[in-house]
Amino acid sequence: ETERQLTRLPQAGPAAAVLAVARDAASAARRDEADARAAIGQLRREGEMRRERLAAIDLEQRNWGKRREGAAAQGLTLDQRRRSLEEEIEALIGRPAAIAGESEALAANIAAAAHSAGAAADRLAVGETRWREATERARGADQLLAEARERRARLDEQAAAAAETHTALVRDIGERIGATPAELQQLAGLAEGENVPDAAAGAARLDRLRQDRAQIGPVNLMAEGEAAEIEAEVEDLEHERADLTEAIAKLRAGAQALDRQGRELLAAAFERVNRDFGILFARLFGGGKAELALTDDGDPLTAGLEIMASPTGKRLQSLSLLSGGEQALTALALLFAVFLTKPAPICVLDEVDAPLDDANVDRLCSLVAEIADTTGIRFLLITHHRITMARADRLFGVTMAERGVSQLVSVDLARAVRLRQSA
User: Fold this and answer.
1) Which of 88, 131, 237, 275 could form a cystine bridge with 138, CB 3.0-4.6 A?
2) Which range is least confidently modeled, 76-85, 112-121, 204-213, 314-323?
3) pLDDT averaged over the chain?
4) Does residue 277 contact residue 333 with C-beta atoms inside 8 Å?
């Protein structure tokens, strides 16, 4: 049955040929479909890229529009700034003349003050000269007074001795002769101008009397008047000395008051600086303790100063025992403490961050920024450190565009950040 059915079937050759043709057509159709799908994918990718490009162009167009608006606003700001600068320049045109007038007035005042100072110095020199001369005169008057008193005492002693001698002679004459000295010539029977009989005795007596008279010395009749003049001059000198003593006492009292006030002010300033020094030291080191100590508790005006510091993990020790970076940070803390006690509008720091590492430089910059924000002090830092320059609001540098020609360049970093945020 199977063989009969096989014989009834058509021949396989034509069908195989048709099948081969169909298979070739199907393969070609598949290749065409694959090519078409690839072309469609390529077109879709190109369309997607074009849509992305159009979106990017639209976004860029909007950004350029915003930049155009920002540039217009910046142009208006610059125009306003230019007008304000022109007005300021017009207002300052007459300032040099005013300054010159003020300078002339100040020069005149300085000259007058110098003249007054010279005159005061001359008066002081004259007064000192007169005081020295008065002192010399007083010393000489004291010496003359002492000599006059010695002469007077000596004369009083000699007069007393002569009076005793005269009394003794009168008594001796009265006892021996029974007459007075005035009656001796009459009792001796001597005429006027007649010599005594015993020439040797008379000569010896005369010599003795001359010697006694020579020992008495001449009598100064003007001694009492001279002594009165000297006493009056001494009294004037004593008044002057009392005035000088009183002035010296007042000057000493004023000096003591100034010393006392200076000690009080120094103690108050030392307490403030010591408190701020401890706080700033802890800020810069991230902890630790530091204090100032006087080497002599007796007088703060003559006492020395010792800096004691204790970074985190170390014991309290002197500044000389710390490392270079720790010494630099401690010195900066003390410098800022003194600066906060007596602030100034501008503070210049020259290469203070050179011995510090990056972490300490960042702490230093944070502290400087905080002090500037709270006190309004302007800090000018001379540095080569990148962190310090990055934390600054404005940079000023010197560049050499041409050989041998230097040019100052400034960059406002804060304004650049604002422009970037607005863009």
Assistant:
1) 237
2) 204-213
3) 81
4) yes
d(CA 32, CA 39): 10
| 382-407 mean pLDDT | 84
Q: Is the pLDDT of residue 423 over 70?
A: no
CA-based nearest residue to 188, from 200, 203, 173, 175: 173
In the Cβ-directed half-sphere of 110, how many Cα atoms lie within 13 Å?
Answer: 6
| Region of residue 207 (phi > 0: left; psi between -120 and 50: alpha; otherwise: beta) | alpha
Backbone angles phi, psi at 9, to 5 degrees: -65, 150
- Separation CA 254–CA 22 (nearest Å): 131
Partners of 217 in the β-ladder: none
Q: What is the model's pLDDT at position 181?
A: 61
- Residue closest to 381 by CA, chosen among 373, 370, 369: 369
Q: What beta strand segments (E) does 152-285 contain?
A: none
The DSSP letter of residue 195 is: P
The tokens describing 274, both together, are 């010591």
- Nearest CA to 378 out of 344, 341, 410, 333 is that of 344
Give every CB contact of residue 292 below 8 A, 6+ residues apart in sequence.
Answer: 270, 273, 274, 277, 305, 306, 307, 308, 334
Q: How many CA atoms lie within 13 A of 279 on its CB side?
A: 12
Range scoring the smallest mean pLDDT among 113-117, 285-289, 319-323: 319-323
Residue with token string 């924000």? 373
Tokens 């050759």, located at residue? 13
Q: From CA 76, how far away is CA 81, in angstroms rounded? A: 8
pLDDT, average across residues 55-76:
88
pLDDT of residue 12: 62
Q: Give, in order, the Cα–Cα distances in Å from 136 to each of 108, 144, 146, 199, 242.
A: 41, 12, 15, 56, 16
List own/partner pairs for 347-350 with CB under 8 A and 24 or more apart: 347/377, 347/378, 347/379, 347/380, 348/379, 348/380, 348/382, 349/379, 349/380, 349/381, 349/382, 350/382
Is 170 or 257 the better-scoring residue by pLDDT? 257
Q: Encoding tokens for residue 68?
A: 């155009």
346: tokens are: 């501008």
